[in-house]
């Protein structure tokens, strides 16, 4: 059994309580759904007339382009956040105090600001300072600033969770800090933190709906427009929610598959990391007299 990074494996008694809690939770959710269906039906919100808009090809294309805009924002902001977050994590662990302080200040500052306010201030503040960009980039900037700080903490947690012998082996091979990070620690940390990284990317994807304050024509805003046009606001929000659930569930499934693949006994270790982890290589290096 492989140990997890963020928590200990539950024991037999804890697993029983988890199973009981799961059953009770599912029962409560089912009860709430049943009550909601009854209430909606009593107010005629489930009538067929309120759902005919989902069969209109024009409306479906309209919503599909909203989903495409959402995915574009999530893809660009996610790529930037991952890159910046990885760099910040390395800087927070660097020997240079200046890099550590600068990275820590950046991380704590952006984490202390709510994402909605951050996006709102960027969308309103930057144009007043003469920076006129498409709304797309205002939303990407807001999401990147916040999520890069979150990804930095995830990467840093992954690196810190590795056994200290990894660093000692790399030092024995004569690798410096940056080489150790690039060749030994980061590849293993990323493999460990894949589920957390994908989970945060799901959060980023959902946060893209905050672009309605700019406004940016993402899925949520187009769903809002569709509801007003078809006079079925609640139904339009339900359709948007189902789309978000489908996309996020697909990403979560991908995260579980990746985690299961990494835990396989035959999972590959990066070539550079395997060299540093090989005790024979380390022993040979230690026994070799210095030139």
Automatic annotation (TrEMBL):
GO cellular component: ATP-binding cassette (ABC) transporter complex
GO biological process: amino acid transport
GO MF terms held by the record: transmembrane transporter activity
Name of the molecule in the record: Polar amino acid ABC transporter permease
Keyword entries, A-Z: Cell membrane, Membrane, Transmembrane, Transmembrane helix, Transport
Keyword Lipid metabolism: no
Membrane topology term: Multi-pass membrane protein
TM stretches of this protein: 16-38, 101-123, 135-157, 234-255
PANTHER family: AMINO ACID ABC TRANSPORTER PERMEASE, MEMBRANE COMPONENT OF AMINO ACID ABC TRANSPORTER
InterPro entries hit by this protein: AA_ABC_transptr_permease_3TM, ArtM/GltK/GlnP/TcyL/YhdX-like, MetI-like, MetI-like_sf
Main localization (coarse): membrane
Keyword Membrane belongs to the record: yes
Subcellular location: Cell membrane
Pfam families: BPD_transp_1 (PF00528)
Recorded family membership: Belongs to the binding-protein-dependent transport system permease family.
SUPFAM superfamilies named among the record's database cross-references: MetI-like (SSF161098)
PROSITE patterns: ABC_TM1
Residue ranges occupied by any ABC transmembrane type-1 domain in the UniProt entry: 67-255
């Amino acid at each position: 059994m492989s140990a997890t990074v963020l928590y200990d494996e539950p024991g037999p008694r804890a697993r029983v309580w988890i199973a009981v809690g799961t059953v009770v939770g599912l029962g409560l959710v089912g009860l709430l759904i049943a009550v909601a269906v009854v209430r909606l039906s009593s107010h005629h919100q489930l009538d067929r007339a309120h759902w005919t808009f989902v069969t209109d090809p024009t409306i479906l294309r309209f919503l599909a382009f909203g989903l495409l805009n959402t995915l574009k924002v999530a893809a660009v902001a996610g790529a930037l956040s991952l890159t910046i977050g990885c760099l910040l994590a390395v800087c927070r662990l660097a020997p240079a105090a200046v890099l550590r302080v600068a990275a820590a200040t950046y991380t704590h500052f952006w984490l202390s600001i709510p994402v909605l306010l951050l996006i709102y201030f960027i969308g309103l503040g930057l144009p007043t300072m003469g920076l006129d960009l498409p709304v797309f980039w205002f939303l990407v900037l807001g999401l990147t600033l916040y999520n890069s700080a979150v990804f930095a903490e995830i990467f840093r947690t992954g690196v810190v969770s590795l056994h200290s012998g990894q660093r000692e082996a790399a030092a024995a091979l004569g690798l410096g800090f940056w080489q150790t990070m690039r060749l030994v620690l980061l590849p293993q940390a990323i493999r460990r933190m894949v589920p957390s990284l994908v989970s945060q990317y799901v959060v980023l994807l959902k946060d893209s709906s905050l672009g309605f304050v700019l406004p940016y024509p993402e899925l949520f805003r187009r769903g809002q427009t569709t509801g007003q046009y078809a006079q079925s606001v609640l139904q339009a929000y339900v359709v948007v929610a189902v789309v978000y659930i489908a996309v996020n569930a697909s990403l979560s499934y991908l995260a579980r598959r990746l985690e299961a693949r990494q835990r396989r006994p035959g999972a590959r270790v990066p070539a550079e990391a395997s060299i540093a982890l090989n005790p024979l290589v380390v022993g040979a290096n230690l026994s070799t007299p210095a030139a």
